[in-house]
Amino acid sequence: MATPTRLTRTLIRSSLRPLSKPITARHYRAHDSPPPAPFTPAESAILSAALSHVPANGFTSTALRLGARDAGYLDASTNLFPRGAFDLVNYHLVTQRLALKDAVQFPAGERIGVGKKVRTLALARLRANEEVGVVGRWGEALALMVQPTLVPASLAELARLADEMWFLAGDTAVDSSWYTKRASLATVYSATEVFMTQDQSAGFKDTERFLDARLEDVMRVGGFLGGVGEWVGYTGHSVVNVLRSKGVRI
Amino acid sequence: MSLALLPSKAIRRSPRPQYLPVLDFLAPSWPSWQPIARKACMATSAPNAPPSSPPPPSANPPSKPLTKEQKDFLDSALRVNQAGELAAVLIYTAQTPPLTRAHPHLRPLMAHMYEQEAGHFAVFNALLAKHRIRPTAMYPVWSVAATALGWGTALMGREAAMACTEAVETEIGGHYNEQVRVLLEWADERRREGAGLGAELEELLGTLRRIRDEELEHLDIAVENDAKEARPYELLTDVIKGGCRAAIWVTERV
């Protein structure tokens, strides 16, 4: 175990940076330079250690304190995390989102539909809650996330997750469907996450079924709206063309 | 409005040098957007002219990561470009049927301009997807507005349609040149530090230059096709230019 003084100094230095400000998905991504790491080494050490205490202690400041102690820091170093337990939740959300691209690999040769890829990705992300062991305590995390002051941060992270999933699924549409796709996936995903906290079935089979049913709903609604749009467009074009053929100058 | 005051014939007959690489270097340092200056700048590089800026002397200088401000700039700039090209494609799509019906000889011209705009739109769609930039939230609004603008001006006649093209391309050409200038400033800044722009930005710079020149070629075409004869010319072009600027302002933000 390293000396507490040195560690405190490291912590103070690292805390000069705005704390664990997650990299936003919403600006230009340069491909010739990698994005900066979302957490400093000290933050990562404490938070990842704290996460292993979540199954026993929940998303609480106790887990944070125990984590800091495990990582060799003073109890007071939890002051680095002004949002307390929410910073722990946020760490889990960010690291799992960034881990998604390595967790799911689609075979290069096969042609898999984007919808199927999105389902696989959403399921993989839900399974990560189980693998890290926080699924039993996820209700607490959700309760933290819906606190009024934390809602913007939670929604932003949800949006980033939805964006990541569509990106990894290989979707390249950049029209108005960009927004509807992300909004509907975020809705489906968060509903499934809530369902998962109550799921008692073996291997979370019910959660899987729930996810499939919600995705199907979205596709049905999307298909209907798409059909309406197509009909309106077709009728409009026909009317204009008929009028043109009658010699109307439009 | 020096361009507006010039008789259109003078512009049409003005000799256009085929290739003047020097002026392309000057483009970024022009302090303000004088239409005459733009004409000269446009004339310097015909679409198939070789790239007028030589590559930096050192073959592969190390590039450095972009700052947050630079990323934000590229984010909003590319979003505006995509929205602009969407509007351009829709304007030409809406203008073509009424216009070619009344003036069949314009068909190849309209097809040529439409094809170039469709090409630009595809370029920016690919860039947005690659760099994970969100499209503008006003996408449906701009779609409707651009279609209405194209259709409306085409119904007003050939001159009005060409005046619309002239106004839009003036704004768009200026906008692209602004971006080229910013990228060249970055390149200068980095050269002083011994770094390069990086392959990605070099390519973007080349793309923006090419597209700017093609947009300004459309501006030329519009002026050659009696855009100045539109009545009321000043009102029409000023309203469209104002609309373009407002749309750019909004798109940079949402």
Automatic annotation (TrEMBL), chain A:
Subcellular location: Mitochondrion
Example GO BP: ubiquinone biosynthetic process
Stretches assigned to the COQ9 C-terminal domain: 151-222
Main location: mitochondrion
GO CC list: mitochondrial inner membrane
Gene Ontology terms, MF aspect: lipid binding
Role, per record: Membrane-associated protein that warps the membrane surface to access and bind aromatic isoprenes with high specificity, including ubiquinone (CoQ) isoprene intermediates and presents them directly to Coq7, therefore facilitating the Coq7-mediated hydroxylase step. Participates in the biosynthesis of coenzyme Q, also named ubiquinone, an essential lipid-soluble electron transporter for aerobic cellular respiration.
Protein name per its UniProtKB record: Ubiquinone biosynthesis protein
From TrEMBL, chain B:
Membrane topology: Peripheral membrane protein
Cytoplasm recorded as keyword: no
A GO biological-process term: ubiquinone biosynthetic process
GO molecular function: 3-demethoxyubiquinol 3-hydroxylase activity; metal ion binding; oxidoreductase activity, acting on paired donors, with incorporation or reduction of molecular oxygen, NAD(P)H as one donor, and incorporation of one atom of oxygen
Record-listed Fe cation 2 binding positions: 117, 169, 215, 218
Listed transmembrane segments: none
Cofactor note: Binds 2 iron ions per subunit.
Subcellular compartments: Mitochondrion inner membrane
Biased composition (Pro residues): 48-64
Secretion signal span: none
Keywords: Iron, Membrane, Metal-binding, Mitochondrion, Mitochondrion inner membrane, Monooxygenase, Oxidoreductase, Ubiquinone biosynthesis
EC numbers, comma separated: 1.14.99.60
Keyword Manganese attributed: no
Job description of the protein: Catalyzes the hydroxylation of 2-polyprenyl-3-methyl-6-methoxy-1,4-benzoquinol (DMQH2) during ubiquinone biosynthesis. Has also a structural role in the COQ enzyme complex, stabilizing other COQ polypeptides.
Oligomeric and partner information: Component of a multi-subunit COQ enzyme complex, composed of at least COQ3, COQ4, COQ5, COQ6, COQ7 and COQ9.
Protein name: 5-demethoxyubiquinone hydroxylase, mitochondrial
Gene source species: Mytilinidion resinicola
Encoding gene per record: COQ7
